[in-house]
Amino acid sequence: MRKVVSIVIAVAVLAVIFGCKDHGAQKAAAPAPPGQHKLNVVTTLFPLYDFAKAVAGDKAEVTLLLPPGVEPHSFEPRPDDVVKMSKADVVIYTNEFMEPWAVKLLQSVATKPEVVDTSKGVKMVKAGPGEEHEHGEADKGHDGHIHHGGLDPHIWLDFANAQVMVENIALGLIKKDPANREYYQARAKEYQQKLQKLDEEYKSGLANCKKRIFLHGGHYAFGYLAHRYGLTYISAQAVDPDAEPTPQKLAELVKAIRSNGLKYVYCEELLSPATAQMIARETGAEVLMLNAAHNISKQDFDKGTSFITLMEQNLANLRKGLQCE
Ligand SMILES: [Zn+2]
């Protein structure tokens, strides 16, 4: 009888001990088998999220900091985002011009995660002619882009750059998890080949088109893409989508639609298609979507839509709009 009582007491004491510990602490106390610890990877924008998932496979838990559907240029980080970054093994962002807020947040993260600036080794180009910023926002840098030298931050829309970004992501993962070096390298290479194939599809798909100019009722996001495939690109807004298009700019777009005999005008994802619709009404053109993939809609996120799928939809819409064979 006494034995039974003492066992009951012992069990009760153990329950109290374990009950007091939080779940995470218990997990940490148990020695994880080698190779079983998953890296915690935090990414800012959708392309990085998709690239990182492709490279990390089942070795990491990759999260997207931006809530799906949120427009990234006006994104204001929340207190919770600093917490997420400080728990991360690796934090991945596009570049200091695209997410100045991320650079700032990282300065207050004491845990020092491995930080990947995916633009390392990418030659950034200036935003198109007439798209330089005019109002001195460069010095503010409180939200949206910093426009130092009028550089275009949308580097992922050149698929050669995208391959460099994938390389940088792989290097960041390897630094934190060198045991799986070969795994990350092999997966990065495989994904880079997919990007190369996409690039070739664009090259051949846009080689024979009746029109070589496209108009965008959005902000200046497709400069890299236009440049890579020898297209002319005009957008209603500059790099910063916060600014409203000027009446002069709208008039210029309407004139360009008419003088080039274009049948389509493009609108962008996540922002109002009002500008494109206005141009369409004025000219009789139709509106098509061109998705710069900064972020992804909730619906596409839930469906698991990939960056490459979005880019293939863009190619189909470009081929339609430019009347390609
Ligand atoms: Zn943008």
What is this structure's SSE topology?
Blueprint: H1 2-20, H2 23-29, E1 39-43, H3 46-56, E2 60-64, H4 79-87, E3 90-93, H5 100-107, E4 114-117, H6 159-176, H7 181-205, E5 213-216, H8 223-228, E6 232-235, H9 247-260, E7 264-268, H10 274-283, E8 286-290, H11 298-303, H12 307-321
The site of zinc ion (ZN) has 6 residues, from loops.
What does the model show?
- This protein has 325 residues and is an alpha/beta fold.
- The protein contains twelve helices and eight strands.
- The protein has a four-stranded parallel beta sheet, with helices on both faces.
- α3 packs across α6.
- About 14% of the residues have low confidence.
- Bound molecules: zinc ion.
- Zinc ion binds next to loops.
